[in-house]
Amino acid sequence: MKARRNKKQVPSFRKLLKTSKVKLENKLKNKQFKQQSTLKKYRKEQRKLRQAVKDAVSKKPIPLEDPKEKRPGKRIEREEEEEEEALPLDMMDEDDLQLMKDLGQRASFLTRDLSSSDPVHAKKRKHEHIIEKYEKIPRTLQTAPEKELIQLLPIKDKSGIIPQTREKPVIDSNQDEEDQEEVELEEEVIEDPIRELTLEEHLIDRKKKLQEKKMHIAALASAILSDPESNIKKLKELRSMLMEQDPDVAVTVRKLVIVSLMELFKDITPSYKIRPLTEAEKSTKMRKETQKLREFEEGLVSQYKFYLENLEQMVKDWKQRKLKKSNVVSLKAYKGLAEVAVKSLCELLVALPHFNFHNNIIVLIVPLMNDVSKLVSEMCCEAVKKLFKQDKVGQASLGVIKVISGFVKGRNYEVRPEMLKTFLCLRIKEIEVKKDTEDINKPKKFMTFKEKRKTLSRMQRKWKKAEEKLERELREAEASESTEKKLKLHTETLNIVFVTYFRILKKAQRSPLLPAVLEGLAKFAHLINVEFFDDLLVVLHTLIESGDLSYQESLHCVQTAFHILSGQGDVLNIDPMKFYTHLYKTLFKLHAGATNEGVEIVLQCLDVMLTKRRKQVSQQRALAFIKRLCTLALHVLPNSSIGILATNRILMHTFPKTDLLLDSESQGSGVFLPELDEPEYCNAQNTALWELHALRRHYHPIVQRFAAHLMAGAPSEGSEALKPELSRRSAAELFETYSMAAMTFNPPVESSNSKRKDKVLQRDSFLDEDLNQLIKRHCNEVATHLPLDFTKYLESSPQ
């Protein structure tokens, strides 16, 4: 019970919570101040003690009674003075006199030290203080040391020789020792001077150091990989090498450590998120294996956090052009370190979307997508695209989309278009298809116990229970809950994407982000809510009519409009004739030069406008587009011609009556007006596809094949039918397949084997016989030199 009372009571957790943070900080500061003051006081006392001991050792102690006294005169005088000062016995009291007599009978009185106040028979203390011994020794005044004289050369005068002397300067012993040490150090420095290395020796030395560091990094990494749970502390040792101070190898070693740690974290990180332990979990007892696993997880999370902080600091130092005090790494080397750090962050963003601090990595990467450095910006954009493509659930994609949307709005839409182009890699289309099937087949609700009891018998309840258990297991196998979660996340993601797009369409119509916005709307248009269709089509038409857009941007507007109308927009009564007219009018802007890149968008637009909306397209419109596309195929690159002719083939199959363009004798009302921009009123039925005859003699064999196929009426069978590898591909796929972007000809040109002729033709065989005779006659004639007279020409010339 006593021990329990004396033991200090540990404050409870609630009491600690009540204590304010400021109070705890003040307590900590007071405690630290007391410790420092106590330490200072202790050091001061120790210093004084050492000084006292040093002074006592340096002085010669003088005993109280010296039997070998050389000066008896002084001793006699001292005794006489003591006798004079002593009191006579008749002046003392009787009690004092009796005490003196009693003491005189004791032998110890004669040998006792009178200056001591200890009892007579007191034992000597074992641990007596050092200073008390020297306090008994009487002090003597310091006498000035005798000055030594140095004999100099004498001076001879009239009176004689005058000796010359000089006092020797007194040097402090401590100062002398210090000077002597300095001289010795200087001598050592002089004896072993640092030899400057040549450039070759310096490179060899650096290579040796670098090899040692590499071996050390490899040893630590292999130890961690072999047993991560036991060697988790070696992560700290490896991470400490990020602060390498050797200027010769600092930059290289830091880069190697960054990459090594990144690969280690990718390998040893578990496939789940590690959460912090609660107080109850910390206090409970556990097995050794569980304790070891918890220590591993805590160590891994802490080291991962410190590693990300180091990478963030490297990027900040590069952005702020801040030079460290140690000056180990130059400002030029900061860029290389920052690029490696950004590369590692991008790898971790893609590889560990489920692990801790993933949102922190997103916050670091998104601003770097808009960085001035093209390399850094491309690395970050590619990493985000890769994350979008592989993210099946949608949790990580939602986090990135939120940060990008906020960043674009915060920068007032002045960002790189590549940031918004990353939205095109989102995996949302396939999830929306699953949404419809779930709406049709809603999950079956299980009966409650009361409902079963009312409606079912005991045997039926038993069978129903087994059936419900089986259905639950099947539902878990299908992961229907995961599908619902996916659908919810993708819906939220798509809402943020459309909000960003609509803001730019409303507030920043002349922004360079507009092409990326229109391209994104064209991809996700079938997922837009029907309520926005009317307003969106009006905005798109206004943009086209404004004339501020480039040709490719206007094509994106047309593509977006028809994607809207081909999906849920079928129920709307909207006539998109103005969009047909715009595309028909601008087709001739395509050519074999810069605008050849827009052919792919045109092929996609034609597929949506004519093929998928075949019921809403008139025959006159189809004839006009087929005629204009054949004319366009004459002045574009071969891959574009193949794509256009493939589109014409599909249109001729979709609209069978268009074969009248292959008959030159058929006539209708009116005259074909090729310069008219209205496809409905250009009278295309009165013309023929004469362009196919020119394309039949094209230098590209595939273009020749398509032209001959169309002239025969695009048959599916027979000698003029296309091969399966050409007929089964879409126009866009053929455009990509036969592209000349890689500066290669597809199909490859066959090398011609020229046969060497046995006979080499003579020079005369190349000439005509009459010409040969004329040459010989002129060569055989003797040249006659006549004087040149130009006067006759001058006289005959007109005056």
TrEMBL record:
Entry keywords, A to Z: Coiled coil, Nucleus
Compartments (UniProt record): Nucleus, Nucleolus
One Pfam family, short name: CBF
MF (Gene Ontology): chromatin binding
Residue stretches in coiled coil: 449-487
Domain Nucleolar complex-associated protein 3 N-terminal: 213-307
Record keyword NAD present: no
CCAAT-binding factor domain span: 554-707
Record field: compositional bias (Basic residues): 40-51
The protein's name: Nucleolar complex protein 3 homolog
Gene source species: Diceros bicornis minor
